[in-house]
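User: Show me a protein chain along with its predicted structure.
Assistant: Here is one chain, sequence first, then structure tokens.
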Amino acid sequence: MTIIGAYLLIDVKTGKFYVGSSGDIEARIKRHLFDLNKNQHHCHGLQKLWWENKALSRSYIPTNTREDAYVVEAELLDRYKDSDLLLNIGLGVKGGDNLTRNINREKIIAKITESVRSRMSYMSATERKILFGKLGKRNGMWGKTHSAEARAKIAKANLGRPSPLLGLKKNLSPEMRKRISDKAKKRIGALNPFFNKKHSVETRRRLSELAKAAARTPPNAKKVKIDDTVYNSATEAARKLNVSPGLILYKVKSEKEKYTNYRFVT
């Protein structure tokens, strides 16, 4: 009779166990034993205990369907994922995870990293872009645009989030700066991603406004908070409120009670 469900292979001497599931538990366990005897089992911990003790007990949790067996297996893996008794090297129930709890995890990652870097070193930037970039119809957003609602959610999620490049420039070594500079000098003509393109009128207007705002704000400017609004400087606040910067500074520095809503932001 074929038994569907989850199962545990338990080392009798240590109590450590391996969790799995199958549409035919007996056949699956026979395969485990075959691999263990051939010293080819993917689970290093189970293989080691097999050669030391060769004493495995079995525990079955029968289910009605294969999908139910996956659910039981997942629950067992989640329950014991932080336990030293669990021998499984992965936490996936449908294969593909041979790394999460692998005792050689760091070595495997280092080997994969070295292999990828070696392969990438022989490829040009264009080749890497073609091979790994999701260009044209390979891009999930090909022929689509985000809705106004989606754009608003993305903007809200990124609002206030520090740039991943924050502080990077000042921490770059001279050698790295030179490498970046040399690489940038080669991006001319057709190699420049903006080759034969022009900014739209609207984009040029926005860039101009940003440049003017940056030029108007001196590096030693202090932020000013008026009511619940924060301005980058007294000048900016004056411009937005259509008053003189002197008046803003007077109210900020004033000790009068009626101007307590004008303050520098520290």
